[in-house]
Design a protein that fits this description.
Length: 175
C-alpha cells in the first residue's frame, strides 16, 4: 500500500499531549489474499482513524475503523461469498524503548507515522480463513457431486468395501 497517502505528520501531536488528529481516507486496494478470501485489487478501502498523543511522552494511540469489501468461496458448497469487513483498529506508536519490547507497539521514528502497515495488517487478520455462505450451508448438491465413488462397493454391490485395517473388529461379538 505504499504511496496511499497514509503517512501522517505527528509533529504537533508529539509537542502537545492530549491533542488529536482525524485521518479519513479512501484509497484503492492493492489486493489482499488470505486462504480462500480476498479484498480484490481495485476495490475501495475506507480508513477513518484518530491519532491522539498521550500524556506519556513520545507515545501516540491510533483508534478507529477500516472498512473493505471482501469475497471468497464457501468452504462447504464452493458458492461465491462476499461481504464487508468492519475492522476496529486500536494501535500504539511509541519512541520509548521500554514500550517497544511489547509486540503490540509500533515503533515511532521521526515525526511521521505510516499507517500503511497498520491498515494492511488489520485487513489481513480480519479476512475469513474459511468463509461460509450461511450457517445452514449443507455443502454441495449431492445429485451434482456424489459423496461416494461408483466402484467403492463390494463385488456383489451389497455395500461399501470394508477397510482391511478394521477387519479385526468384524470378529468382535458382544452379548
Amino acid at each position: 500500500m505504499k504511496g496511499r497517502d497514509l503517512r501522517i505528520s505527528v509533529t504537533e501531536l508529539l509537542r502537545r499531549p492530549g491533542t488529536r488528529r482525524e485521518v479519513a481516507r479512501t484509497f484503492t486496494s492493492p489486493g489482499y489474499l488470505v486462504a480462500a478470501s480476498t479484498v480484490p485489487e481495485g476495490s475501495d478501502i475506507v480508513v477513518d482513524l484518530v491519532v491522539e498523543s498521550t500524556a506519556q511522552s513520545g507515545t501516540l494511540t491510533v483508534t478507529g475503523t477500516v472498512a473493505a469489501p471482501w469475497e471468497g468461496e464457501c468452504r462447504r458448497c464452493l458458492a461465491d461469498v462476499h461481504g464487508t469487513l468492519e475492522i476496529d483498529v486500536r494501535e500504539v506508536f511509541s519512541h520509548s524503548p521500554d514500550a517497544l519490547t511489547d509486540d503490540d507497539v509500533w515503533p515511532l521514528e521521526g515525526e511521521e507515522i505510516d499507517l500503511d502497515e497498520v491498515v494492511g495488517e488489520s485487513i489481513l487478520l480480519a479476512l475469513p480463513l474459511a468463509p461460509l455462505c450461511g450457517p445452514d450451508c449443507k455443502g454441495p448438491a449431492l445429485d451434482e457431486f456424489p459423496a461416494r465413488i461408483d466402484d467403492d462397493t463390494t463385488e456383489d454391490g451389497s455395500g461399501p468395501l470394508a477397510d482391511p485395517r478394521w477387519a479385526a473388529l468384524d470378529q468382535l461379538h458382544f452379548d
